[in-house]
Amino acid sequence: MGYLLQHLLIESARLSPEKTAVVYQDNSLSYRQLDELSNQVAHALVQQGVKRGERVGIYINKSIPSLISIYGILKAEAVYVPLDPQAPVSRLGYIIDNCTIRCLLTSTAKTPVMHELAKTTESLEVVIFTDTQKEVDELPLINLLWTDVLEMPKLAIENVSDHSDLAYIIYTSGSTGNPKGVMITHLNSLTFVNWAHDAMEVQSSDNFSSHAPFHFDLSIFDIYVAAKAGGTLYLVPETLSMFPPRLSAWIEQHQISVWYSVPSILTMMVNHGQLDQRNLSCLRKVIFAGEVFPTKFLRDLMRLVPHPEFFNLYGPTETNVITYYPVPVIPAEQTAPIPIGKCCENMDVFVISKDGVHITEPGIEGELIARGTCVAKGYWGDEEKTKKVFIKNPLENNFYDQAYKTGDLVQLDEQGNFIYKGRIDHMIKSRGYRIEIGEIETAIYSHPQVKEVAVLAIPDDLITNRIKAVIALKADSTIDAAELRTFCAETLPKYMIPEIFEFKAVLPKTSTGKVDKTSMLKDALV
Asked: Parallel, antiparallel, or unpaired for β 390-392 and 402-412?
């Protein structure tokens, strides 16, 4: 048996059983309680026939039950698949059938969606409810109530899993119209968690924030680094997460010492969070990742909150974090983005040119390649897509060594830091999410009245990019932006729905007859 993610919780429960492990609003659990409740969930899953390596879904708004569910699935030797609580039913159904989720943990508030999924999915058989808020309507599925779970044994189930087994699958945007599931092993995740615990010098006295949703890979730091440190994890209520003044007050109230989020949240707090009115001396580390942090806003943040150390982390879901940059004082005249830094310990990254040459000189642009135990297994059920980006290490000729093509263009600076320069494909970032433009275009094209569509990424200091759809309709069409927005919501998560819809009689073309996105983007930026 290898060392596994759930052992982080088990060890902290052994060392500090009565220490508060997690807090959500007025509720909390000690490490002992979290350990015992997750054991009971594991027993319930095994009772329902869940086997080692089986995928189990979590469809719960961020809460203490969602954290219990994560550890319970891992302790049952299964693989957890966190589902976006705001995703449309069609997207949920695709993921459930794509990785054969037979058992799902959810809340009673999601019962209406469970009825829809029971009708539309082939895989789903068992639902376990993780709360007792209300009566549950009868479902055409096997269902267990939380009272049933609480009757299960509190003792741990003996595990025989190895650290090379899958721990979780996170679905990200896919270029062909459907999301793709990134397969992460215990070892993949622990490579990052162990590095982050040591590099960030976290302590058992730390109060960790948990801002990212659990279907977003930033949550891995929150969940497991906090557990490894034996600290207290404070789940940010969804009602606060997008309201800067209330969020900064929440940080002050709970004496958060380790903060981790996408830069756009921190930018909102700089602009609207009343930071000059808060006592945030509690903060020791402010960590951000997922998108470029506009330098002017980062400089303002470091002026308004001067006490903590600031870190820029970089890495795709397929590797988690692989580079980091401790941010020094930013000169007043600097406008260029800060670097993504140097490679994390126990990982390896390098740069390859278009023709496969290893780039080691500063200032030359190429694609960033990652290798080592941080690299994921690939994409669930998609061997073709896996082979395109999970490749043999081009620098190793003696044996097979898997590497991952990040698709990110970088160059080295004179200090040996990597500078992010952009993408080699049509993937964009918005609010920290990686989004394939092709998936949005596929969704819009499926409307019967749409003739042509081009989706554009409009640069934005606050959220990196805003999404705009330029559309040519078929003759005599009467569809408007509101109807198209509603149509998109049937298949796309909220963060992928275009904010702007523009209609044209025809879309401009290049000399080769392709849709001219470059000219449309120039027009949008005027």
From this structure: antiparallel
